[in-house]
């Protein structure tokens, strides 16, 4: 699959074709599924890690703690388990619908803790989004990384090592999670709790009310830090003085452009008209048209990860938030007066102080 060509086509105006069968929602892992046992003292709690990040909350598998475009969830999970975990060492496939693992093989020379490898089944997302699927698949993978990382932090594991460099398509991304350190201290107050992680599903539109400037600044800062410098970040805000703003180094919002960009964003976001009334829309932009496949993967994985981190922060602050992954003809850099095809919108997070109702399916 030529990822560069796929992204160029996905950014165009061509609509997807008719839906096709999505296939099974999880891999057909061999052997019987086994429950994840509780963790003893000093062990990495794999049951808690997966329950707080990827496990489905309903029998259909649509309601999960991490967003996915169309609630199609193309990301699959394999665990390489070493010593110091609640499971015996080995390689396991994870079934998020039943919250069970399947032992696949031994895991020789596995380090203490677990490596979580994320692969994808493109058919699930292709079934609805067609040629627009690949950017969404990568964003979904980034969201899964964010969910796993936040769960590891909530469980006070040791320092987590992320692989989001885009160097390979299989696995798309991975996390190395060590057991809790001896004498580990509880998470600091800024760490998301288990309750935060299970309540972060995307709010139902419309999302109305402009968030406070401090909240917007902090969310932009969270996203910029999580994005690791690979993307640019700004927010289109409504209210009495609509504008596009970015986070200044002095703790204030710096205006990039005056005027209301939300109607244009609604058109660019596959015609999702409700975005025009959102209180604000946080935007990741970059990934130029001449980016190679590695950069395409890297930028989209980081965008999904960063928006996942920002969404959880927004929910903790009582804001309504919904990830927006589909973007067509969204050359934000050119719209701001820059060189064309250098700074495309890669991902978005619609924000408000109120929403239409309880969390929905977690679509991005």
Furnish the topology, listing elements before pairings.
Blueprint: H1 3-10, E1 34-35, H2 46-51, E2 75-81, E3 90-95, E4 100-105, E5 114-120, H3 122-129, H4 133-154, E6 161-163, E7 173-177, H5 194-198, H6 213-226, E8 232-237, E9 243-247, E10 253-258, H7 262-268, E11 280-286, H8 293-316, E12 320-324, H9 332-335, E13 344-352
Antiparallel strand pairs: 1-4, 2-3, 2-5, 3-4, 5-7, 6-7, 8-9, 8-11, 9-10, 11-13, 12-13
Helix pairs in contact: 3-4, 4-8, 6-8
Descriptive report:
This protein is an alpha+beta fold. 27% of the residues lie in helices and 20% in strands. The protein is built from nine helices and 13 strands. The strands form two sheets. A seven-stranded antiparallel β-sheet has the order 1-4-3-2-5-7-6, with helices on one face. A hairpin with a 4-residue loop joins strand 3 (90-95) and strand 4. Helix 3 crosses helix 4 and helix 6 (213-226) runs antiparallel to helix 8. It is globular. The protein starts with a helix and ends in a 12-residue tail after the last strand. 49% of the residues are buried. Mean pLDDT is 93; it is low at 360-364.
Task: Quickly give the structural class.
Answer: alpha+beta
What is the N-to-C order of secondary-structure elements (H for helix, E for strand)? HEHEEEEHHEEHHEEEHEHEHE
Please summarize the sheet with the most strands.
7 strands, antiparallel
**Beta-strand share of residues:** 15-25%
Please estimate the helix content. Answer: 25-40%
Distance between the termini: 23 Å
Total beta strands: 13
């Amino acid at each position: 699959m030529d990822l560069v060509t796929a992204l160029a086509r996905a950014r165009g105006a061509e609509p997807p074709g008719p839906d096709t069968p999505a296939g099974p929602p999880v891999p057909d892992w061999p052997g019987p599924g086994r429950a994840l046992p509780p963790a003893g003292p000093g062990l990495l709690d794999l049951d808690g890690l997966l329950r707080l990040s990827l496990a489905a909350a309903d029998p259909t598998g649509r309601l999960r703690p991490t967003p996915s475009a169309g609630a199609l969830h193309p990301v699959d999970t394999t665990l390489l388990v070493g010593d110091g975990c609640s499971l015996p060492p080995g390689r396991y496939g994870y079934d998020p619908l039943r919250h069970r693992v399947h032992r696949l093989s031994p895991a020789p020379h596995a380090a203490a803790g677990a490596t979580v490898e994320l692969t994808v089944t493109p058919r699930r997302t292709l079934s609805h989004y067609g040629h627009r699927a690949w950017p969404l698949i990568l964003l979904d993978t980034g969201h899964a990384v964010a969910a796993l990382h936040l769960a590891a932090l909530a469980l006070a594991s040791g320092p987590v090592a992320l692989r989001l460099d885009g160097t390979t398509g299989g696995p798309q991304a991975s996390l190395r999670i060590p057991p809790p350190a001896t004498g580990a201290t509880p998470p600091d107050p800024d760490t998301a709790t288990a309750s935060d992680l299970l309540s972060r599903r995307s709010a139902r539109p419309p999302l109305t009310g402009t968030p406070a400037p401090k909240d917007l600044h902090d969310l932009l800062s969270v996203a910029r830090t999580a994005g690791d410098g690979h993307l640019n970040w700004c927010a289109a805000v409504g209210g009495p003085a609509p504008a596009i703003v970015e986070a200044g180094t002095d703790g204030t919002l710096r205006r990039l452009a005056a005027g209301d960009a939300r109607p244009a964003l609604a058109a660019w976001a596959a015609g999702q008209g409700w975005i025009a009334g959102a209180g604000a829309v946080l935007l990741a932009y970059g990934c130029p048209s001449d980016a190679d496949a590695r950069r395409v993967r890297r930028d989209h994985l980081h965008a999904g990860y960063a928006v996942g981190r920002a969404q959880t922060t927004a929910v903790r602050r009582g804001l309504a938030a919904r990830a927006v992954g589909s973007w067509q003809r969204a050359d934000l850099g050119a719209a701001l007066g820059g060189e064309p095809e250098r700074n495309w919108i890669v991902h978005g997070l619609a924000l408000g102080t109120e929403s239409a109702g309880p969390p929905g399916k977690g679509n991005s």
